[in-house]
Amino acid sequence: MDLMKRRSGGRPAGPHALLIGVLALGTTLLGGPAVASPAPTLHELASAQGRYFGSATDNSELSDAAYTAVLGSEFGQITPGNSMKWDTTEPVRGRFDFTKGDVITDFAREHGQSVRGHTLVWHSQLPSWVGALPQAEVEPAMVDHITEEATHYRGEVTAWDVVNEPFNEDGTFRSSPFHDAMGSDYIATALRAAHAADPEAKLYLNDYNIEGLGAKSDAMYALVSELLDEGVPLDGVGMQAHLAVQYGFPYEMRANMQRFADLGLDVAVTELDVRMQLPADTAKLATQSTYYQRVVEACLAVRRCVGVTVWDWTDKYSWVPSTFPGQGAANLYDESLLPKPALAAVRTALGEEDDGGGSGGTTLKALYRNNDSAVRDNQIKPGLQLVNTGGAAVSLQDVTVRYWFTGENGASTYSTWCDWSPLGCSTVTSRVAGSDPAAAGADHFLEVGFRSGSLAPGASTGEIQLRLNKTDWSNFDESDDYSRTGATSYADATKIAVYVDGELAWGVEP
Ligand code: 9MR
User: Which residues line ligand 1 (CB under 6 A)?
Assistant: First the structure.
């Protein structure tokens, strides 16, 4: 059966339930800087699901009392954004300085947090002396660096990003002093040295743009498979997740995480943020919310995904504006440390109870009108509308709709069209696929999806005028088509199915 899963009930995970959460949290925060609220913290919510919720931080931020109040209470894990990098810890060969990193581990100890060590071997923030070494000296220098640092932080750092960003975008190995001197063997050497220095720490390879299926994550997958085959100590893969609303959400993130998990590795989301072109507006913040929410949902769906770390929690201390001029607003709280919609999205994704009187399950319905009076001609023209009858907003990217029909004789290939929609046809996707197995009146279906957008409680998509034909323009006989009715005005259509995240939310499948 190619039919999708039946929705099993459960809570909706839409950004609107979230807005309710924002208001609740906002109320506790009015009139002052963000402080711990009586609601469960992000980390408590994550812990209830067997995960941690963490944040990056940096030494200069720790003198900001309003900032540390949230850092120390909401998060159960911290990652130093810069203080454990090579240029800070060994600026001169053999002269180690762990002062800054120690401030971070002290903070973590005082607040009951775990620390992710970031990072032992990276091509960036590398003091120039490393690149100037004769090639034969690079390996001993790298092993010394790892040994000193991982030994110093034994018992303090629970997981290390041993090697950071080893790949180019096309999946080839990135050139670096390490790769240039040792080829890709430097990665196994680094992992072995880290394991020797701290056998208890979980050892990770970490990179960006490996969150979804693609050439770069394939390369990581091939590398870690080989390392495991060779018995190299390796515990997990870190997916940085520096996302942007103007780019699509990582393709099949959950499936990608799962394939690493299936190798016996842990997976961690290590540097999550979702930037946008400034100024921020409601639509961009809504898309940002769904991205945050979907990352958390993906992690929760994969048993070996151990937790999520945001690359700092407030726009006040984001790395984004200085690196991507004109972009920013990437974090869960704004520059004044006030919650953004994405915070509530994350809380809902982590399973926070909806105290806003929401509906329970996601409730969408399909309305249909037949825009084609001819039963026998060469086109089928369904008009569709989706209405959110629930109490939570629904991210349209999670929604697909199926309209079943029979193809009759003629070409087995189809063209599909969106002729008009107030959503903008460019946000609507459509395709025809064969039903497997075919049911009466339903050997094919038109599947409609959405590239973006969110449907607030009570809202309708408005009309979506669809059209399809066979590529040889031969005729259909629509009289027996499963989903067709003769309705000339919009009415509830129970023979059109609506799915949210692949689970049936409305309608009866053939
Ligand atoms: O957050 C870090 C920022 O303060 C530094 O200026 C920057 C320099 O490269 O590094 C940032 O952190 C990076 C992390 O170490 C690796 N992944 C990408 C992060 C954002 O650039």
Answer: 81-82, 124-125, 164, 240, 271, 319
